[in-house]
Amino acid sequence: LRLFDADGRGHAIDAATLARQIDAALAAVPLPPGAVVGNLCLPADPAALVPGLLAPLVAGACVVGDPAGAAVVVAPRAAAPARLAPGQRLVAIDVAPLPPPPAPPRRALAFTAAPTAPGEPMRFATTVPPDHFGFAGHFPTYPVLSGAVQLHELVLPCLRLAWGQVAPVAFTDLKFLARIAPGDAVEVVVRTVGGDRCEFEILRAGTRCSTGRVSLRAEPRP
Hints:
The chain is α+β, with helices and mostly antiparallel strands.
């Protein structure tokens, strides 16, 4: 036999070892006579099979949708017993939620400056890697680089590449117009508009993703 872990790695196991593991799991599930079992596990969880189904069956369960009159009931979450007969008590079979995946490492993006003539806007190109920390949890099925991350990880480094050690005082006229997705190659364009103010835009293959203005101040050198 060959079992596969959640990460897809397989390992060999003989039938006798597997049987002993199942017996140990069954023995670890306390099912007193007359108990009602509510199987609250998702079908893919190991507990949905061994303690949530096999253990009750070994204890003499019948798999029904109505707990009335049954000694042991195995039911999915949506059909968990709504009431108990006199003398019965509920044994809920559930598993702890999986721990969240480790946060992606926070690495600064590398920018390439395009040659420009004096007085022209400055342009900096980079690629947002698929494992960039800014996509974590935002959103699981539709990753989008949030506006705050764009300002901190794309705009601010380019402002400092253009004008040295500066800090933003205020962002104004912000517009987030198009999605920045994992693996996108983007260009950050910055230009001065007078005094300590500048404009920026983030482009993806010519599509304007974000624009805005920012007021800057020089940071004191350490």
